[in-house]
Amino acid sequence: MNIFDYLRLAWDQLKRRVVVTALCTMGIAIGSASIVVALSFGESINHYSRVQMSQFMKTDEITIHRGNPTSGTSSGDPNETKAYELTKSKIDIMRTFPNVKAIATYQTLNSLQFEVDHKSGYINNLFATELDTLSAFGFEFQQGGPADQENAIILSYGATMGLFDEQLSRSNQQAMRNNSDSDGGSYERNGQMRLIAYPLYQKQVILKPNLFVPGGMTSSNIQFPLRVIGILKKPEGMSDQAASNMKTAFVSPSLGKKLQEAINNASSGNSNTNGSNQEQQPSPEFNEVKIKVTNSTHVKEIEEGIKKLKLSSQTNLHYEEQMQGQLVILRFIFGGVGLFILFVASISIIVAMTMSTHQRRRQIGIMKVLGANLNQIRNMFIAESAMLGLLGGACGILLSYWVIWGINLAVIQFSPSQSGSDLEILFISPWILPVGLFFAVMTGVLSGIYPAIKASRTDALTAIKRD
Question: What distances in angstroms separate CA 43 from CA 33, 150, 299, 364, 412, one per listed residue?
Fold first, then answer.
């Protein structure tokens, strides 16, 4: 007998015992579906954690600075430190690294003011970088976007909030002096106004950098008229109060260089006025480089290449590694629960096949009289068990899709604050399906071994006489 004969006989027996086949298939389906759903939970949680870590902790980004020569290798030669500088040639080499999604230079300027429509705003940090790389680094635009335009600026959502209106401020102060708001209503209104975003898209703003002097910080006469070509979206899940404190902006590297030179010239002029003759050191075009990696799993190999260029790098990958270690335990728990349910389901097959052996003693005896050996009898019952496992596994896959669909629907229904397209819900990876089917078939085979051995040991003459 070949394998097709065993499968044909097994299928005939399953069709004859419809009720028993349906019950066994249902048990295996529940067990295999539990395996698939458990693995899907673990895989979805793992994927969700990676996405969240990449979005908030930036685990797929590498920040690069100039290298730090070790004290033991330093010989005092000033030319020796040039090998550790962050240069454009090294940046070009890093662009050739595999799995690099984007690379951008960053020069940071702090504490700037801007004026628009008789209102004034504040920028905590202004970054001079390649504007066309912002989308690659995860920034989403609410309005506009990068453009090849001189004297252009992109503002964060927080930078458009809480613009100061001097005329309105004077009227509020007058109202407070007149005690017209003794209940504190003015303070409440001022707090609410700080959370209102002012429409700045395509408007011209006057940028005014502040100067840092030995006595503190002072305003300057520097003015840069800039066009707002883009407004960034407020980060998802962030409150207006938190967003109002994130006042950042982005300009092109060439404009950033002009701003830095103007600030340096104004600072040197103030130093000369104050009697200080210290020579102003030229500022570098950029003080750090950021690399966006296609996946956080490639961060370490890119870091090795950066070390060979004698540069220092910083990542948040250790946070993801800690999270992955905790998720491994969770995935084992889900998998253990699924295996336990599958084990319980296997008992039904053992009972069903044992009862089938008892009911088919006469058939087994006749087959032995006609020349069937022990291996053929045993293989026939194992083939039936394997086919039961295969049917149960196929039904379990369909059942698992329905379960996952139901859970996703419940998540969408009970999460009205977010749109369904933005939700990170459960999914079934392609590799989980063959794993669930394999466990179902193996459960059927292992559950059928004992009934198969018992059937092969049936005495032919005794079985025929008894029945």
Answer: 15, 47, 21, 47, 19
Provide φ and ψ at 251, rounded to 5°: -135, 170
Give 152-209 pLDDT, tens digit per residue.
Answer: 999 999 999 988 876 666 665 565 556 555 455 555 555 566 788 899 999 999 999 8
pTM of the predicted model as reported, rounded to 2 decimal places: 0.62
Phi-psi region of 428 (alpha: psi -120 to 50; beta: other; left: phi over 0): beta
Residue 199 φ then ψ, to 5°: -70, 110
> Residue 370 burial by CB count (10 A; 0-12/13-18/19+): exposed, middle or buried?
exposed
- What SS3 class is residue 127? strand
Rounded to whole angstroms, the Cα distance separating 140 from 419 reads 17
**121: enclosing H helix or E strand:** strand 119-128
Query: Could you state, in order of their start, the residue ranges of all structural domains in the chain?
Result: 3-55+323-466, 71-316
Burial category of 76 from C-beta neighbours within 10 Å (exposed 0-12, middle 13-18, buried 19 and up): exposed
Q: What pLDDT is stored for residue 270 in this prediction?
A: 61
Q: What's the pLDDT tens digit per position in 271-307? A: 555 555 555 555 677 889 999 998 888 888 999 999 9
Cα 253 versus chain centre, distance: 30
Residue 70: which residues within 8 A CB-CB, separation 6 or more? none
The single residue listed with the structure tokens 């088919």 is 360
* Distance separating alpha carbons of residues 182 and 176, to the nearest angstrom: 8
Identify which of 26, 464, 108, 71 has the alpha carbon closest to the alpha carbon of residue 284: 108
- The answer to whether residues 66 and 86 touch, using CB atoms and an 8 Å cutoff, is yes
Of the candidates 236, 311, 303, the residue with the CA atom closest to the CA atom of residue 59: 303
* Residue (of 156, 335, 319) closest to 232 by Cα position: 156
User: Which residues make Cβ contacts (< 8 Å) with residue 185, sequence separation at least 6?
Assistant: none
pLDDT tens column, 383-435: 888 888 888 889 999 999 999 888 888 877 776 554 434 455 788 888 888 98
Give CA angle at 272 (127, 207), nearest 5°. 30
For 396, counting Cβ atoms within 10 Å of its Cβ (0-12 exposed, 13-18 middle, 19+ buried), the class is buried
